[in-house]
Amino acid sequence: MSNKASLFSNDHLLSLLRGEDDDLLFGLADEIRKKEFGNEVYIRGILEFSNHCNKNCLYCGLRVSNRSIRRYRMTEDEILACVELLAAEQVGTVVLQSGDDFNYSGACIGRIVDEVKKRHDIALTLSLGDRNLSDYSYWRKYGADRCLVKIETSSPTEYNRFRSGETFASRLERVKELKEMGYETGSGVIIGLPGSGVRRTLQDLMFLTELKLDMIAVGPFIPHPDTPLGDEGPGGVDLSLRSSALLRILNPEANIPATSALDALSPGTRIKALGKGCNVVMPSVTPEKLRDSYFIYPGKNCSETTVPAFLDKIRQDIAKAGFTPSPSKGYSHRRKNV
Ligand code: SAM
Ligand code: SF4
Q1: With CB atoms counted within 10 Å of each terminal CB, which end of the chain scores lower, N or C?
Q2: Which of 34, 62, 68 minimizes the C-alpha distance to 49?
Q3: 222: Cβ below 6 Å to ligand 1?
Q4: CA gap 29, 189 in Å, rounded
Q5: Radius of gyration of the chain (CA)
Q6: Which residue, by CA, sits nearest to atom 1 of ligand 1?
Q7: 88 alpha carbon to ligand 2 midpoint, in Å?
Q8: How many alpha carbons lie under 13 Å from residue 186 in its C-beta half-sphere?
Q9: How far apart are CA 128 and CA 5, in angstroms?
């Protein structure tokens, strides 16, 4: 924990999350981000290559029971062509994300990782969910750099209520094992899942901090009409912004994205989050014709422009906000002295 954060009592941290001193919270988060990362904002292009999923998480539009979604899978060649475009666009990281889709075997993902790392000077993040640890180990050998596995909540009871398949304990164990394998490891929570409040959010943030992660992603819950949580209220945009600011104070060296869920609830907020402690943006770089089928929640992937035009727009927005869009791979600062 940073020295500055240890000056705050639990009650003070709660009051900051409730918005009782946003100037202090956001000012300190911005100061710490600037000291660690200067003006640079890292861009991680997310390629959402399949929206098939064998799980049934109550909050997610990709859940297997949702019959109203048009499912797709990209081929290996299509995935590699997209990564080539990103490398040509000088995007430093590609994130391969999908539902938990075992149609892609361990060997198939291994081939994709191998080809990407052989062909391009680009960092590679995997966000593939609960795949076998032996597969993750195999992909690491082919050069995959990072993994993103969100725990979604620090409450085992809530986890087991909202997600199917793995238990909270094994999801957590997975995060720890991935770190052991040498992956730069990211995790995070959804802010404002039904029934949670500010106290639970603080517990979540402290829990994530104890995991000593390379990357921490928090974004608001967005109800999806075709899920069992469709009638619930959304998570708070302000609470999400305050949560990532507090995470910055607690984890000065972590990469913290300004999540796209912020923009889905309140357009323009993702860029504003860069001035409140965040240092990464993760635009979808899924081909236009598939982008709106990766329908996790309403408001996701609204842009209909081509990938290069979309990247241009994001870079312009970052620059207009006074930051420098960086072509860097943005490796973890936690590991810089390791
Ligand atoms: N299947 C993989 C997994 O679950 O780890 C990766 C894909 S999953 C769609 C990526 C993330 O979407 C999840 O970690 C979850 O936090 C987020 N997500 C899904 N539904 C959401 C919703 N309704 N509101 C906010 N975030 C959501
Ligand atoms: Fe599948 Fe991930 Fe959505 Fe859960 S959150 S239904 S595992 S895509």
Answers
A1: C
A2: 62
A3: yes
A4: 19
A5: 19
A6: 99
A7: 30
A8: 24
A9: 33
